[in-house]
Every structure is written in C-alpha cells, then in structure tokens.
C-alpha cells in the first residue's frame, strides 16, 4: 500500500461515490483518502459501495478545507474535466502518475478531485502545482468521479511497477542451443516421416519462425528436446 499518495475529494455530494472511490483505490494499492467537507460521511451507502474496502473508508481523514487536506504535501496535482480559460500546464494521466510516484519517494503528494457537478473552483486550482486531464470525448468529457479516480490510480500502480526492479530474468536459450534444437527437430521429423527430405517444402523455415517467435528459455528448450528424444525412442521401439 502506497501511504504517501493522498487521494483528496472535495465536497463530494453522493456518499456512494466515496465508497466507489475507496474501492477504486484499494484495488490499485492506494490507501490514503482525504475528504474535504463531504456532504454525508460516514454513510451506509458509502460502505455498501466500497464492497470490502471499508478499511480505506475507516482511515479516511475528514478535513474542513483543501489547504488542511494538503498540509505537508510537496506536490499537488489537480484534475480537470475540461480545458480552462486560463491555460494551465496539463499533464496526461501517465505523466501525472510518473511525477507523483517520483516525488512520493521523498514525502507526501496529493491528487485532488472536484465536485460531481462543478469540479474544482479557481481558488482550489490555485492550490495545485499542475493539472491532469483524462483524454475523452470533447463533446462529453466528464467522467464519473470514481471512474476518474480508477483511471489515475491504475496509472499510479503502473508507474510504481516501472520503478521496481524486474521480478525474474529469463535465461533464454542461446543461438547455438537453438541450432542444435533445429537439427534435432529436423532429424526427428524425418525419422517420423513427417518431413520428406526430397520434398521439404518450407516446413523447417516455418517451424524456425514459430520457435524463434516464442523466445524459449533454457528450461523450455530442455522440455522440447526431451519430447523429441521420447518421440525418437518410440519410433525405434516400433521398428
Ligand atoms: N462538471 C464538472 C465535472 C465534474 S466530474 C467540471 O466540468 O469540472 C467530477 C470530477 O471527476 C472532476 O472534478 C474531476 O476530479 C474528475 N474528472 C471527471 N472527468 C475527468 C477528466 N476527463 N479528466 C480528469 N478528471 C476528471
């Protein structure tokens, strides 16, 4: 759970949306929810919509003002469903996630969401360093609050994965191991009379393309060689 990335919701009217946001956060490893003057909280409807993310709701911090929710944050990014009259630097969801993730390594950061009907006020936007917009249909650009949280939280999860070392390095079969395999494969297919040396058509070339595309690792290569040897053994017994 990423504790130092805050999701801040301003004046949410529908408690169901708060619950849906808690759920959207938890599935993406986020847990810090800040609520600025929610209309109704705690509320049974929020708990119902959280479906299991009650812990995120239980630890939610209720604040009287946006500055209170942002106290201690080194980077604040606001969300905008539309282009504004004053040009703000607009980030894409991916850029936003990368910035927040990078800064969260050094302290608290916040991603701020507006009201269902009217978004964020100019005064609230002025509390933000930058704004993020989720690209959408220009004729109908406003997502449901929890849907917007879901998309940006997903990008945050991806950005965190990108900064972690790769889980497992696959030991791929080397070029010479692949060549020995192809020789073994060709011999076996000939013994099985699947491949006719006088009319090879393009079989070996097609099989090479297939196995090269799979980029087999050493263990997989051993399995394939084992299968070929087993097939050769059967053929010998039949003779
Ligand atoms: N009518 C409002 C839209 C509010 S939608 C307006 O024009 O601002 C509720 C909240 O969901 C927004 O304040 C924002 O936080 C988020 N949201 C909805 N659509 C979004 C989008 N396309 N990009 C970024 N955030 C969005």
What are the key terms here?
single chain, 239 residues, alpha/beta, Alpha/beta knot, Helicase, Ruva Protein, domain 3, 2 domains, seven-stranded parallel β-sheet, 7 strands, 47% helix, 15% strand, elongated, binds S-adenosyl-L-homocysteine
What does this protein structure show overall?
With 239 residues, the protein is an alpha/beta fold. The relative contact order is 0.13. It contains ten helices and seven strands. The mean pLDDT is 92. The chain folds into two domains: 2-159, 3-Layer(aba) Sandwich (Alpha/beta knot); 175-238, Helicase, Ruva Protein, domain 3, CATH 1.10.8. The longest helix is centred in the C-terminal third of the chain and has 21 residues, at 218-238. It has helices at residues 15-26, 44-50, 54-58, 66-70, 93-104, 122-125, 145-162, 175-191, 203-214, 218-238; strands at 2-10, 30-36, 61-63, 73-79, 90-91, 108-113, 130-132. The site of S-adenosyl-L-homocysteine (SAH) has 19 residues, from helix 7.
């Amino acid at each position: 759970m990423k504790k130092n990335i805050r999701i801040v919701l301003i004046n949410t009217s529908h408690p169901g949306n708060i619950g849906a946001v808690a759920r959207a956060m938890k599935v993406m490893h986020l847990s810090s929810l800040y609520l600025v003057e929610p209309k109704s909280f705690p509320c049974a409807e929020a708990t119902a919509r959280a479906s299991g993310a009650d812990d995120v709701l239980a630890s939610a911090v209720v604040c009287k003002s946006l500055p209170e929710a942002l106290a201690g944050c080194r980077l604040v990014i606001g969300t905008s469903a539309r282009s504004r009259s004053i040009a703000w630097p607009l980030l894409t969801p991916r850029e936003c996630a990368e910035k927040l993730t990078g800064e969260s390594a050094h302290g608290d950061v916040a991603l701020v969401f507006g009201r269902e009907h009217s978004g964020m006020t100019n005064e609230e936007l002025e509390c933000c360093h930058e704004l993020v917009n989720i690209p959408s249909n220009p004729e109908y650009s406003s997502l449901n609050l929890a849907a917007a949280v879901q998309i940006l939280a997903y990008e945050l999860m991806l950005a965190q994965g990108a900064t972690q070392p790769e889980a497992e390095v696959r030991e791929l079969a080397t070029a010479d191991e692949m060549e020995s395999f192809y020789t073994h494969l060709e011999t076996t297919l000939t013994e099985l009379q699947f491949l006719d040396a006088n009319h090879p058509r393009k079989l070996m070339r097609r099989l090479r393309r297939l196995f090269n595309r799979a980029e087999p690792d050493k263990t997989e290569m051993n399995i394939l060689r084992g299968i070929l040897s087993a097939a050769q053994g059967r053929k010998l017994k039949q003779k």
